[in-house]
Amino acid sequence: MEEELLRPLCSGSMASYEGRLMKCEECNIILDRDVVAVLNLQMRGEGFPKEPSMK
């Protein structure tokens, strides 16, 4: 099962944009999909929650 890619800082959903690029549906930033994956893995490894808590 493929896990949804999330933008590390705003937790917006990432959608394919052009080739290897991904665009955040929340803040419209465009990043290489490998960069998004590395940032997500690094943040998860450091104990950041997958999604921000809503208070």
- The CA-CA distance between the termini, in Å, is 30 Å
Q: Can you summarize the main beta sheet?
A: 3 strands, antiparallel
- The tally of domains stands at 1
Number of strands: 3
Q: Strand content of the residues, in percent? A: 15-25%
Radius of gyration of CA atoms, rounded to a whole number = 11 Å
Uncertain stretches of 5 or more adjacent residues:
none
What do the pLDDT scores average to? 77
**Count of alpha and pi helical runs:** 1
N-to-C order of helices and strands: EEEH
Taken from the alpha-carbon principal axes, the silhouette is: globular
Name the structural class: alpha+beta
Strand order of the largest sheet: 1-2-3
Helix content: 10-25%
Give the arrangement of secondary structure elements.
Elements (H helix, E strand, L loop, with lengths): L13 E3 L4 E4 L5 E3 H13 L10
Antiparallel strand pairs: 1-2, 2-3
